[in-house]
Amino acid sequence: MSHIPVIANILESNQAVARDVRRTLGGRRLVLNLISSPGAGKTTLVERTAAALKGELQLAVIEGDMATSLDAERVAAHGVPVVQINTGGGCHLEARQVAAALAQLPLDGVDVLIIENVGNLVCPTSFDLGEDAKIIVASLAEGDDKPLKYPAAFIAARLVLVNKIDLAPYLPVDVRKLRQAITAINAEAAILEVSCTTGQGLDAWLDWIRTALHAKRGAPPYSLLPTP
Amino acid sequence: MHELGLTQALVDTALRHAQQAGARKINVLHVQVGALSGVVADSVRFYFDFVSQGTLAEGAQLCIEITPPRVRCRVCGAERELPLEGGLAGAWYEQLMALEPCSCTSPGDDPPGYELCGGFECFLGSLDVE
Fold first, then answer.
1. Among A8, A65, A145, A151, which residue has the fewest nearby CB atoms (within 10 Å)?
2. pLDDT in tens, B34-68
């Protein structure tokens, strides 16, 4: 009998496909993976973003849902190329589904690809989809304790959007406590308070996208890096 | 959560490495699962027998080690583990809040606090094969 050291991430086959997705999308497109509970406002955020960036940045969207193409129809109404993935019973998107969806998207001229994951704060966090950043949408109506209950989601996030901030006066939720809980888990995550209903805070979100896209494009291509 | 798919991925990974090593049979899979990873070890065990049927891993022992949440001092970067209670991390936040300040804190200073830095991993560490 012999012992083989492996030390492999159990999800390495998913990560291999995610690397292919990154290669396909290249260094000029920003790829965002939106994760939240059901009903936190991901699709409304995508709609608002599509409307606001029209004529400035070309968006493409991949919609993940267990069933229906309702979300894709909402997004398509804004003139954005969109592919709906129905996972059947699947509680999250995997890289191979994104790879298949890319084949159906016109990628020429696309600046920002938004992948809207299945509404779920547990499973989607484990699966790399080839994104540049995971973004958590945490709506105020969910309460201020979700980061503590679902830490794996929040530790993976580059940005947390606290949505439905316009409801703050009507809800027994402590925004300060919510921010503290996010920071306890992930001190590096940016936090933006937004309302996709009133538009409050969305300028800061659009600026975050512009900055992230600029940062990605600003990095010199590997071929230009000095060789050691 | 998605333990069936995860167990399938675990078995696939193990089979690939065992085949590369020319093994005829896998006896033990040593797996490390972070207490905050969201992976339910009992569910992985439940699916393992089913998923491994007819493969080199059939009948193998699944040895799952739960690794505790780890935190890092925000100033000096020193890491430490939080205790596991019954193999679960259900009280991680209370434990984090109750931690004494890091030894880099001078008396009278505001303690800088800690941030989570581990406990989310899910690794196949090694295989015993023949």
1. A145
2. 988 888 899 999 999 999 999 999 999 999 999 99
Tokens, residue A185:
């888990």
Strand B79-81 versus strand A157-163 pairing type = unpaired
Predicted pLDDT at A228: 44
Whole-prediction pTM: 0.85
B11 contacts B51 by C-beta, under 8 angstroms = yes
Q: Tokens representing A186?
A: 């992930």
Q: In this complex, is the C-beta atom of B14 within 8 Å of any C-beta atom belonging to chain A?
A: yes
pLDDT, residue A17, reads 93
User: Each residue of B70-92: b (16+ CB within 10 Å) or e?
Assistant: bbbbeeeeeeeebebeeeebeeb
Residue A168, chain B, CB below 8 Å: the answer is no
What residues does A99 pair with on adjacent strands? none
For B126, the closest of A1, A5, A152 (CB atoms) is: A5
Q: What are phi and psi of B47, to 5 degrees?
A: -80, -20
Q: pLDDT per residue over A28-79, tens digit each?
A: 999 999 999 999 999 999 999 999 999 999 999 999 998 999 999 999 999 9
Q: Give the position of tokens 């027998």.
A: B49
Query: Is B65 in CB contact (< 8 Å) with chain A?
Result: no
Contact A22, A16 (CB under 8 A): no
| Distance separating alpha carbons of residues A11 and B31, to the nearest angstrom | 13
Write the single-letter amino acid at A194: V
Phi (first) and psi of residue B122, to 5 degrees: -155, 95
- What's the token pair of residue A206? 């659009």
